[in-house]
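Input sequence (285 aa), recorded before submission:
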Amino acid sequence: MTQIHISIRKPKTGGLDPVTGTLRFRPVRRHFDAAKNLIIAASFDANLSETGELTVDLLPTTPAFVWQVVELADSPQAYTRYVEVPDSQARVEYADLVEVDAATFVPKDMTGSQLLKVRTQSEAETLSAQYPDVLVFFDETATTMKAAMAMSTLESITAEAQTNAALARSAMLSAQSSADSATATQSDLNILASNANTLAASVANDSQTVADTANAVAAKGEWASATIDSTVQAVKDKAEAATTVLPSTGTTEGTTDTGTTEETTEEPGKDSTPAKAKKATVKGA
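Predicted structure, token format:
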């Protein structure tokens, strides 16, 4: 909003007197504002003070509309103006507002002239194409400021895009690193699984070998036990046979019978009598 200060006086003998009355304000043409609100062409009234002054807040005009101001509305002195309102933080005097044509919004000072003033270069280009016989000029400072703002915006967008690209690259490298780590981990797991399978096969083979060896040892143990029992039994049989006393007759000198030997010894002057049989001794029994 821009504050507009209005002061109206009337002449008198020796000076000026304040004027009281009503001013009516109405935007010419319906339009949309920056917030995309539809602004209709409705009017409002404001009264002058006892000092003939009034300060009113008005929307800055755009190429879409201007303000209609009816001075001292509903009085014989009523007068209508169409003015541009600048976008200003400072208070603007009503007398300094640019009066324009109600139909074309062209400043009245330029009506019938080959000069046309607009605010920006883009507006100038549009009007120049629309009115080829009219010289259109614009505020270079405002255009330069807009161009600088546009360039600043582009630089900001470029910087943001570069930042986003760097972040995307970092994320891609991180993902690639994670994928490589996952691949290496899978490879290690495959190696461990292969080693575990090999170890399991080796253990199974060793277990089978141990089982086979144990079976062989058991078989040999059984064979050895049977052999020992057979040998012991044979020795016992021979021992029992050896304990039997040989007969004193019916044997021949120097003859062995079932493990015994009978000897006849003849010496001069002695009788030939058989010697007592010796009990056989079995070694290792």
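Checked by second reader. The radius of gyration is 68 Å.
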